[in-house]
Amino acid sequence: MQELKNRIAQLLADGSVQRILGWKKGEMDYDAEPAFFETQASLDDFVYHGFCAANLSKYMIEAAKLPGKTLVCLKPCDSYSFNQLLKEHRVDREKTYIIGVGCSGKLDIDKIRAAGIKGISGISEMENDTLRIETLEGEKSCRRKDVLLERCHVCKGKDHVIFDEQIGSSQDTTDGDRFAAVREIEAMAPEARFAYFQEELGKCIRCNACRNVCPVCNCRKCVFDSTKFDSVQKVNADSFEERMFHIIRAFHVAGRCTDCGECSRVCPQKIPLHLFNRKLIQDINTLYGTYQAGSGLEGKTPLTEYHPEDAEP
Amino acid sequence: MYRINSRQMEMLFRKITEERELYLPVKAGGQVNFAAWTADAEVSLDTLKTVKSPKDAFFPQFESLYTCRTQEGKLTIEAEKRKDRPFVVFGMKACDLKGIQVLDQVFLKEPADSCYAARREKGTIVALACAAPETSCFCPVFGIDPAAPEADVCLWKIGEAYYWKSYTEKGAALTKSVEPLLEAAEDDAVVEKEQARIRTMVKKLPLSSLSLEGWDGAHMNEKFESPLWEQLHRPCLACGTCTFVCPACQCYDIRDYKTAAGVQRYRCWDSCMYSDFTLMAAGNNRTTQMQRFRQRFMHKLVYFPANNDGMYSCTGCGRCVEKCPVSLNIVKVIKAFAKEGAANE
User: Fold this and answer.
1) Do A197 and A160 sit in the same domain of this protein?
2) Which residues of B touch A221 (CB under 8 A)?
3) CA B284/CA B313 separation, integer angstroms
4) Measuring CA to CA, how many Å separate A160 from each of A73, A150, A215, B10, B98?
5) Whether residue A159 sits in one domain with residue A135
6) Are the Cβ atoms of B31 and A211 closer than 8 angstroms?
7) ipTM of the modeled complex
8) What confidence score (pLDDT) does residue A226 get?
9) Is B244 close to A200, i.e. CB distance below 8 A?
10) Could you say which of A132, A167, A202 is where a domain stops?
11) Where are the alpha helices (DSSP H) in A156-207?
């Protein structure tokens, strides 16, 4: 982290960039928040560690409208989101300086708590792939790989698809099959599948965190925020509405979703929202050939290109 | 005081539902929230914080107010019935109880909200002392004692037994209805020891010593005009997580749901984080996210206490601390102002 901190301080000091978009130290070791740093003094609070999971790409839509350049720290998987925004002309590349930061997988505080570790007051990442956890009842530990975010088990790899410079090393943390859960759900009987989604979506409180965090959910005004639309953003009046919101959203991001996993990370009710996206990604791969949104800037995409021989699903 | 073994709880729930509806923490889809008890519900009384607070029991996220129907050219208007069955909310924590006291200030003052008042009248609250407060908790900051929730009935879980103490008439009535399942216990000392243990634990919580100095009506303009808001709101996603998991947020919206057969007028929770919050025919007096973000904290920490004899509309439950997608929360806001204040001195 020190190398990264020194470099961003230097770029801010010499006027190459006007502000830094990174993560700020929280009250605990595990609650760093996205933040803009505009002065050298403010950089005292800059941190980068295993709990800096937030994907900062989407903040660049607004930041790139500010005067001067913004330096943004992007992890390898975040860089796909940034690329997708660039492809959709939602960010200004000229106003952005990208430091591709290394990543060895990000940690899920809720998984640590679910493992029965309560009253957590501090967490240190040790070199031997373990976490040393201070709790109200004394010191505990757990293995890093047991408490990675879901998305890190299907890591996009060590490479940044877009950057101006890279700092820090990365590790591919893949140890799962990206579409395994999708296939399991596909194999369910229709009634069981319906019951599964009803239970999961029945938890939705319409906080809109999934939508607001999603880098490709970037309409200037969402249809669900319109006062002229009967189904408003605040509550699910019935089970039809709760399904409608999530299904419309999944279809709207189809072909554009990079599978960054932020929707599932932020859901307060832990609805596995990424499964909708992965189902659509799998279908696109099957029908139109393997495609990863955000991997490149050139060319048409499966759902924006037409061939007479295209599948009619 | 009474005692009941944890193995008997299922029988207790069954007994309660003979005469009353029963809402308690239930695990569904892997998450624990207050829900109606059923024989196959996975009850989780040991869960410290349900995802949503139990305020739904009195102030539901969605409630129909009335329905208009047109049939053969005739219009009928049918008002929603007020709650008329007694019910029990079982296992509420001290912070969530305080949340209900906050809602009482809003909804029971004249002119009282009849939907809310009917639920308050029919509802009996059985609270449970917090056996293991979390590091995200800061209820002592608001004068709340998690070892002694002020409810109709209070429970303490000690070992395999729940100790049961009734405090009000409603509590006595509920106790009487389930008395055959309870055994009398003269174990005040056991409960006092447990309370002392909880209070010692609470003192160790990292956020429990937060200072609210300067958060009052007297500092309203100074707080409102602070340049800090411009900085603090920047990472906010403008989602409604903090407001919808909060036990004390009380803003609501009234909307019409149109179907082919008619119109349903309903009330639902609103969130100051949402773009149409306080939108009126004449426009909106909060047009930026900074203004909406500021509203949340000014309401909880300045306007509400200024209008309600110093009562804050935050209870320190810490749900927003745990659930904010970007780890931004009321504790960080309070601390940022304290830091700024110290720097200016």
Assistant:
1) no
2) 275
3) 24
4) 11, 20, 17, 55, 49
5) no
6) no
7) 0.95
8) 83
9) no
10) A167
11) 180-187, 190-201
CA dist B262 and B77 (Å) reads: 10
Q: Is residue A294 part of a domain?
A: no
Q: How many Cβ atoms from other residues are within 10 Å of residue A198's Cβ?
A: 13
Q: What is the pLDDT of residues B281-337, one digit of tens each?
A: 898 889 999 999 999 999 999 999 999 999 999 999 999 999 999 999 999 999 999
Q: What does DSSP assign to residue A148?
A: B
Instruction: Judge if A58 and A157 occupy the same domain.
Output: yes
pTM of the model: 0.95
d(CA B25, CA B48): 10
In a domain, A190, yes or no: yes
Which of A33, A205, A236 faces B235 most closely, judged by CB atoms? A33
Query: Which of the four pLDDT bands, split at 50, 70 and 90, describes residue B261?
Result: confident
Number of domains forming the structure of chain A: 3
Among A136, A211, A234, beta carbon nearest to B269: A234
Kindly list the residues of chain A whose beta carbon comes within 8 Å of any beta carbon in chain B.
26-28, 31-36, 54, 59, 118-121, 136, 199-200, 202-203, 205-209, 211-213, 221, 225, 227, 230, 232-237, 265-266, 268-271
On whether both A93 and A47 belong to a single domain, the answer is yes
Query: What are the phi and psi torsion angles at B300 (to 5°)?
Result: -70, -40
Residue A102 phi/psi, 5-degree rounding, is -70, 155
Tell how strand A165-167 and strand A96-101 pair up: parallel
Contact partners, residue B62, CB within 8 Å, separation at least 6? A235, A236, A237, B266, B267, B268
Spell out the alpha helix ranges (H) of B181-255.
Answer: 188-203, 220-224, 228-232, 241-245
Average pLDDT rounded to a whole number, residues B141-148? 97
Q: Tell the residue number behind the tokens 């190398």, with chain if given.
A: A3
* A72, HSE (Cβ side, Cα atoms, 13 Å): 31
- A89 and A119 share one domain: no
The residues spanned by each domain of chain B are: 2-203, 217-344
Q: Looking at beta carbons, which residues of chain A come within 8 Å of B26?
A: none
Residue type, A105: G
Residue identified by tokens 């810490």 is: B318
Instruction: Give the domain extent around A137.
Output: 109-147
The verdict on residue A306 lying in a domain is no
Q: Are residues A248 and A121 located together in one domain of the fold?
A: no
Please tell me the distance from the alpha carbon of residue B193 to that of residue B161, in angstroms, as a whole number. Answer: 14
Subunit contact B327:A205, Cβ cutoff 8 A: no
Report, in this order, helix, strand and coil percent for chain B, each rounded to 5: 40, 25, 40
Identify whether A299 is part of a domain: no
- In this predicted model, what pLDDT tens digit does every residue of A200-235 receive, in sequence order? 999 999 999 999 999 999 998 898 888 777 666 688
Measured between beta carbons, which residues in chain A are less than 8 angstroms from residue B28?
199, 202-203
Indicate the DSSP class of residue B303: I
Taking all residues of chain B, what is their mean pLDDT, rounded to a whole number?
95
Same structural domain, A56 and A139: no
Instruction: Convert A100-116 to b/e letters by CB count within 10 Å (16 or more is b).
Output: bbbbbbbbbbeebbeee
- Which among A28, A212, A269 has CB closest to B238? A212
Residues A160 and A246 in one domain: no
